[in-house]
Amino acid sequence: MKKLVKSTGVVFLVAVLMAVVVACGGGNNSGGNAGTNEGAQNNTPSTGNNSAANSEEPVEENLSGAVIIDGSGTVYPLMARIAEEYMSTKQSGVSVQVGRAGSSAGFKKFIPGELDFADASRPIKDEEIEQLAENGLTMDDVIEIKLAYDGLTMVINKENDWATEMTKDEIVNMYLSGHYAADDVVKWSDIRPEWPEEEIKFYGPNENHGTYEFFYEVILEKQDLVATANLQQEYSTLVDLVSKDKNAIAFFGFGYYVSNTDKLTAVKVDFGNGPVEPSLETIGEDLAYAEFTRPVFTYLNGQYAKEKPQVLDYAYYVLEAAPQFAGETGFAPMPDAILAEYKSQLDALK
C-alpha cells in the first residue's frame, strides 16, 4: 500500500511538471525551447536590436585615481577648462589636479617624475632633456604635444589713449636696458615726442614663466630687460597693477587679456604692414600676428601613461577637447592633422 501511495505521488508530481511545461510552451506555438527563445526575441524586436547594437559599442571603463599637472600659467586656463569638463562629463572618479607654477617650475617637477603632464609656453630646453636622462628618462619616454597657439599680448591701462598702436621696434626698444636711459627710467615721450613726459611702468611675468623666456629669448633676442621692470609670479597681479596705473604696460598671453578686456587695452602691433590687433583671427604661424605667435605645449610622461590608465585616457581627452575649448580660453586651435599625429603616438603606448 505504501508503494502504491508512493507511486501515485510520483505520477502526480510528473503530471504536474508536464502541465507546467505545456503551459509555458503553449504560448509560443513552436514546440521547442529554441523556438521559445526566438519567440521571446520576436515579441520584443526593438529591445533585441538595441542589445545587439550596444554589445558592439566600446564600453567606457570607469576609471579612478589622480592625474597630476603643473607648469605654465599661460596654458593653465585651457588645461583647467579641459580638466573640469573631463571630470564632470567623462570620468568623475578621476581627480585631475592642474597647477600653474610656470613652465620652468613645472619642468623642475616633471623631470624627477612628480608630474604626469608638464604644461609649457615654450619648448623643453636641451639642459632639461639632459636632466631627464639623469633621471632615467629620454624624450622617447616623453610625448610633446602642441596644444594651441598663443599670441604674446602687450596690454596698457584703459586711460592710456596714446600707445594703443606701436611698432614692433618701439616695443622691443622700450624694454631694452640702456636703450633710452642709462638708469632705465624711460618716459613715454622718449618713444614718441608727442606722448606724455611721464615714466613708463614696465611689468611682466617672472623667470618661472615660459612667457618671460619667450619675450626675453625671441622678442628681445636675449638682450637684458630694463632694470625698472617689475616681474610678477601671478598673472592676476599683473592685471591688477596695469589696470590701476595709466602709465603701465605689460606683456602676457592673449588668454589673460581676453579675460580682462574690461580692465585692459591690447596694443595693436605694427610689424611692417600696419597695426595688427591680437585676436583668434590674427594669431597663427602664418597669420598677421605671426611674429608674436608661439605654440603652447603639454609634455606627457609616457611611462606613467602606460602604467596608469587614467593618465592615458586623459591624454586622449586632451587631444579631443583642446580645439573645442581653445577659443573660449584665448587660444587659436591647433590643426586637426597635427593632433591626429599625437593620437597615433598615444595608440603606440597601449
UniProtKB/TrEMBL annotation:
Keywords, alphabetical: Cell membrane, Lipoprotein, Membrane, Palmitate, Phosphate transport, Signal, Transport
Annotated InterPro entries: PBP_domain (IPR024370), Phos-bd (IPR011862), Phosphate_ABC_transporter (IPR050811)
GO biological process: phosphate ion transport
Transmembrane segments: none
Record flagged with keyword Glycoprotein: no
Domain (PBP) ranges: 64-319
Compartments in which it is found: Cell membrane
Biased composition (Polar residues): 41-54
GO molecular function: phosphate ion binding
Pfam families: PBP_like_2
Subcellular location, principal: membrane
Region (Disordered): 31-60
GO cellular component: plasma membrane
Keyword Signal: yes
Stored SUPFAM superfamilies: Periplasmic binding protein-like II
Signal peptide: 1-23
Membrane topology according to the record: Lipid-anchor
Similarity-based family: Belongs to the PstS family.
Subunit structure comment from the entry: The complex is composed of two ATP-binding proteins (PstB), two transmembrane proteins (PstC and PstA) and a solute-binding protein (PstS).
Role according to the record: Involved in the system for phosphate transport across the cytoplasmic membrane. Part of the ABC transporter complex PstSACB involved in phosphate import.
Name the UniProt record assigns to this protein: Phosphate-binding protein
Species the sequence originates in: Xylanibacillus composti
